[in-house]
Amino acid sequence: MCGRYSFAVEDELIRERFGVSVRSAIYKARYNCAPSQELAVITNQNPAELQFFRWGLIPFWAKDPLIGNKMINSKAETITEKPSFKKAFQLRRCLVPADGFYEWKKNITKTPYRIVLKSGAPFAMAGIWEKWVSGDGEIIRSFSIITTDPNELMAPIHNRMPVILLPENEKMWLDDTSEATLKTLLKPYPANRMKAFAISKLVNSPKNDSPEVILPISD
After folding, report:
1. How many CB atoms lie under 10 A from the CB of residue 17?
2. Rounded CA separation 215/114 (Å)
3. Gap between the Cα atoms of 59 and 114, Å rounded
4. What is the residue-wise DSSP string for 141-201?
């Protein structure tokens, strides 16, 4: 799964890398993005602007928005089959921009790791989104991050990883593309372009949202 990530990038770099407008009054650097928070996405409906949706997909047919807490991730292998994700995959896709993500290696103490691109560049995870309307008219826009099998770097740490799109495939993900073509994009990112390192347990609490979270430590 992917249960925590970071997106702490200067406004100008966001504009250059993703080609979107950024409202500085809304955007702020996030070192410890967690489920249920309002986080940055770029949707197929509005690909020119950075928007903020709740992490944890709430299907349009849900009676209780709390169901989103169980839908922070969607599996690439079954996304076209599950009722909660199928329609969103067909019609409502998004990029989830990040500059790193976190995973916990199962050992005696569950060591947290930060995984980034070797280049240090921000990247886009493949996501889907939904619009949910309550009985009294409240609107919540939410998203889920798609996961896949781990690459060689991730396999010793965890059995899943987020789908990180190659930059040349990001526009295709947002465009009206055939389902068969879209599914070919849902694969592990090349391990030789990534690196992972142990970090402190500060990341365990979403309350810790500062640069100290991302600092490497001795494993």
Report:
1. 17
2. 9
3. 30
4. EEEEEEEE---TTTTTT-S-EE-EEPGGGHHHHHS---HHHHHHT-SPPPGGGEEEEEB-G
Average pLDDT on 99-111 reads: 92
Q: How many CA atoms lie within 13 A of 68 on its CB side?
A: 29
What six digits make up the tokens of 38? 């309002």
Residue holding tokens 């020119």? 48
132's enclosing H/E stretch is strand 123-133
Q: How far is CA 200 from CA 116, 149, 160, 161, 213, in A?
A: 16, 25, 21, 20, 7
Residues belonging to the active site = 2, 103
Which amino acid belongs to residue 89?
F
Q: In this predicted model, what pLDDT tens digit does every residue of 25-63 receive, in sequence order?
A: 788 999 999 999 999 999 999 999 999 999 999 999 998
Structural domains of the chain sorted by starting position, each given as residue range(s) with its CATH number in brackets: 5-99+120-188 (3.90.1680.10)
The span from the CA of 91 to the CA of 14, in Å, is 25
Residue 142's closest CA among 70, 46, 36?
36
pLDDT of residue 219: 55
Report the alpha-carbon distance of residue 34 to residue 102 in Å, rounded.
Answer: 10
Strand partners of residue 112: 104
Using the predicted structure, report yes or no on whether residue 1 has a pLDDT greater than 90.
Answer: no
